[in-house]
Amino acid sequence: MNHIEVLTRYTANFIDELSKNGLTDIVISPGSRSTPLALTASEHKGIKEWIILDERSAAFFALGIAKETKRPVALICTSGTAAANYFPAIVEAYYSRVPLLVLTADRPHELRDVGAPQAIEQIKLYGDYVKWFHEMALPEATPNMLGYVRSKAGIAIYKAEEGNAGPVHLNFPLREPLHIDFSLDNIWGSENEKPFTSTFDGMKKLPDQQVQQLVDRLQRKKKGIIVCGPQINEHFAEAITRLAAKWGLPILADPLSQVRAGNHDKTQIIEGYDAILRSEAVREQLKPDFIIRFGAMPVSKPYLFYVKQHQHATQFIVENHAGYREPAGNRTEIIFADPILLCEDLIAASPGMDVDSHWLRTWQDMNQTAKKHLLSGSSNQVTEGEAVRGLMDVIPTNSSLYVGNSMAVRDVDTFFMTTDKHISILANRGANGIDGMISSGLGAATTGKPITLLLGDLSFFHDMNGLLASKQYKLNLTIVLINNNGGGIFSFLPQAKDPKHFEALFGTPVDIDFGQAITMYGGSHTVVTHEAELKDVLTTSYQELGLSVVEVKTERTENVEWHREKWQAIEQELLKKGE
């Protein structure tokens, strides 16, 4: 058997096994050394290949697909710094628990450390940011080695999805010639074969005795809150709201919790808690006996201040599998269990909680006060908060909103109120970076589901080359671009008081006409100045195909003042009512 046949059968068996284990999407950045992997992935009828030229964009594109589909996505690139450009998205995938399979081609061992071109150290290139690394054997096509390569493909899928999902890395040393011969017989193996390795993995569940112990402890406490942080299970909202109804407790729901939208009961959801908890005096009035948090730490910094201020309250954090996400540094008890099963068990084990009925009503009244101020008024020039408010009014049901970091996600936290629409909220909140956002949004758009991307001008600038995927694949994406000519979030921080260095180091204006870049990539571009105009333009964009960018130009100083006026009005009314 010659080299080309060996290479063909080796790579074809690997790619076929990925497909047999459920992989449907592979994102490829073209290059020479990765030719065998790229060709076989493109040839396999069960896999959709996406060709994204820039590796950093490609990795975030794959991240977006995986976030939207909740399935593993593979990446293929050539050797050298191409693989290094995956790093930011791999870090994000690790912390946000997104399954990615990173398949890097490499020089064979004899071409390493000898000055060969495009050769860098790729062994464990991503360090602890991948759940599993494996250096693949040099290609062979014996039955044992074809079994080996299928085994590693199956293990890679399992490792990416097992427990807390995340990225895995397989490095492929490949010798030239790199051609593939698809005329060979039966390179994929039997179409009817099951996966080479099958796995059965159950969900974590607390024993009945531990559930009862938890209920007994909490029944003696009068004032509790349920906190729902970022998580992706669309069935969680129904379970948690039933538990809250049974126990008579408020739910502080982060916008990324998937709890604010849908047709479940929302009467106990407190979506205005970020505005409520900005006042230290109000936080003191809301002293809890216990806190149960599901999901990651909420976006809201005032909530962080709240739990620090009440560090002596009994606090629980529910994790699906493993991990410790408690940045407040409080004494905390971690519950490792499937959150939906835990809710069901707690409901079944508790006849009812002896809670303070005034406690829930207090939270609900404060929430109504906050919403009254946040939803009122209309400025002559649309503000960033009004832009989010208008967006949430017209965004279609059964769609996804992909939110950028910095101010974008915080304004969604503040102005995204509960709705009966079915809207998934996605964000790259693992490492909270502003890079790769356009690529992530376009990756999510590959499903055909309506996707709206909300981001700031610096995030847009960081990933403008990601727009090529929209033109290349005719993807439909509506982008709401909040352009305050710089890093608007820094205007809320103490750095803003340093006039000498603020603009250069933190404000960072780019003074770019984004319309030219959008036109270059075949998109439509509209600048709006009023909330009503924004709604009209967005409504139209959802009926059109392709890339549509709606730009909202704001002024950073005015935006800070507008937000602070809202927060101060809420604080004053809450404190007056509490007298």
TrEMBL record:
Residues 192-403 form the Menaquinone biosynthesis protein MenD middle domain. InterPro entries: DHS-like_NAD/FAD-binding_dom, MenaQ_synth_MenD, MenD_middle, THDP-binding, Thiamin_PyroP_enz_TPP-bd_dom, TPP_enzyme_TPP-bd. The keyword Isomerase does not apply. Residues 13-124 form the Thiamine pyrophosphate enzyme N-terminal TPP-binding domain. SUPFAM superfamilies: DHS-like NAD/FAD-binding domain (SSF52467), Thiamin diphosphate-binding fold (THDP-binding) (SSF52518). Its cofactor is Mg(2+); Mn(2+); thiamine diphosphate. It holds the Pfam family TPP_enzyme_N. It catalyses: isochorismate + 2-oxoglutarate + H(+) = 5-enolpyruvoyl-6-hydroxy-2-succinyl-cyclohex-3-ene-1-carboxylate + CO2. Coiled coil: none annotated. Signal peptide: none annotated. Catalyzes the thiamine diphosphate-dependent decarboxylation of 2-oxoglutarate and the subsequent addition of the resulting succinic semialdehyde-thiamine pyrophosphate anion to isochorismate to yield 2-succinyl-5-enolpyruvyl-6-hydroxy-3-cyclohexene-1-carboxylate (SEPHCHC). Homodimer. This is 2-succinyl-5-enolpyruvyl-6-hydroxy-3-cyclohexene-1-carboxylate synthase.
